[in-house]
Amino acid sequence: MTAKGVLMEPLPTPLRAAHPAGERLVSVVVPVVERVDDLVALYREFTPELATRGERFEFVFVFDGGFEPSPELLLLSREIADIHLLRFAQRFGETAALRLGIERSRGEVILTLPAYPQVRPEGLAPLLDAVDGGADMAVANRSPRLDSWLNRMQSRAFHQILGGISDHRFHDMACGVRAMSRRVAEALPLYGDMHRFIPAIAMREGFVVQEVAVPQHPRNAGTRVYGPAVYFRRLLDIATFFFLAKFTEKPLRFFGLVGSAFLGVGGIVSFALLVERLQGNPIANRPLLLLGVLLIALGVQLIGLGLVGEIIVHLRAPHRRAYRVRERI
Q1: pLDDT in tens, 133-143
Q2: Fewer beta carbons under 10 A from the terminal one: N or C of the chain?
Q3: What is this structure's pTM?
Q4: HEC string of the chain?
């Protein structure tokens, strides 16, 4: 791509540049993946709200593979220097797009927006106010919800599952509108499809996360139904987050617990068969014998896997920190 402002990775130098001291710059990062609306209209709809607050701002649009900036957006980026367009060489997903946008942005405050209107523009001010008021991250909670009962039911089920995993029960973790300081944005361990859990990840990292009620945009009210593969992937994402949140530092507690269950059931089955054999009953052709042996073997392997995980954690311990200091009192 040779048009002005459209850059291909690897990027030789970051876009970050010095700006006058005392003037805060807000970087609006827009990952362009999956669902995309008119980005020029999105820019023109949200910028007046930032301008009204007297904020200096820039927009960083990151296009995933397969998505192209429209001619109107290219023309606008030539007219306005604070619009930056980046495009991946292939599909890497929303998490990677957010990471690139954060890396290439310059602002002290990062504001993430989906590539379609999820909330009304006036919702940006309370989010920025929350960050100014001391929150490390402010996440939008679309309220009141305007969308269908099916959307609300899906959201409720999602948060019901996550409620038992996260240390805090969020109400709208899937909303992509968030404000955070650069310090927080750069500290988030983002990879895979972890963008859905950013508020919970930030809280797990020790940051102060505040939910802010923000009016939902009317164009975000359509019913959303996905294919079975999408729901299955999201369940896997939740399982991944559950494991990382609970057992990253203690893998043996997970694998040891599951392995012990298999080992225990296999031992009971095998012991019962042994008693029958001692009573003179043949067990060589009993399917239960095979099941008992398999369960014992599987249990031993899982416990061994947990021990290997503990060794890896132990060897990596000198090179990483499992804590974050907020302040010196």
Answers
A1: 999 999 999 98
A2: C
A3: 0.79
A4: CCCCCEEECCCCCCCCCCCCCCCCEEEEEEEECCCCCCHHHHHHHHHHHHHHCCCEEEEEEEECCCCCCCHHHHHHHHHCCCEEEEECCCCCCHHHHHHHHHHHCCCCEEEECCCCCCECHHHHHHHHHHHHCCCCEEEEEECCCCCCHHHHHHHHHHHHHHHCCCCCCCCCCCCCCEEEEHHHHHHCCCCCCHHHHHHHHHHHCCCCEEEEEECECHHHCCCCCCCHHHHHHHHHHHHHHHHHHHHCCCHHHHHHHHHHHHHHHHHHHHHHHHHHHHCCCCCCCCHHHHHHHHHHHHHHHHHHHHHHHHHHHHHHHHHCCCCCCCCCC
Q: Backbone dihedral region of 92: left (phi > 0), alpha (psi from -120 to 50 degrees) or beta?
A: alpha
Residue 142 corresponds to which amino acid?
Answer: R
Q: Which residue(s) pair with 28 in the sheet? A: 59, 111
Using CA atoms, how far apart are residues 289 and 130, in angstroms rounded to an integer? 62
Backbone angles phi, psi at 188, to 5 degrees: -75, 130
Q: What is the pLDDT of residues 30-43, one digit of tens each?
A: 999 988 999 999 99
Res 321: pLDDT:
67
Mean pLDDT, all residues of the chain: 86
Find the mean pLDDT for residues 120-148: 92
Cα 98 → chain centroid: 10
- The first and second tokens of residue 158, run together, are 């999602």
**192 confidence band (pLDDT: 50, 70, 90):** confident
**How many CB atoms are closer than 10 A to CB 237?**
16
Residue 63 carries which side chain, given as an amino acid letter?
A: F
Place of tokens 């031993």: 300
* pLDDT tens figures, 250-309: 889 999 999 999 999 999 999 999 998 898 888 888 888 999 999 999 999 999 999 998
Distance CA 316, CA 21 (A): 39
Q: Side chain identity at 103, as an amino acid letter?
A: E
pLDDT of residue 35: 86
> Which tokens sit at 73?
């957006």
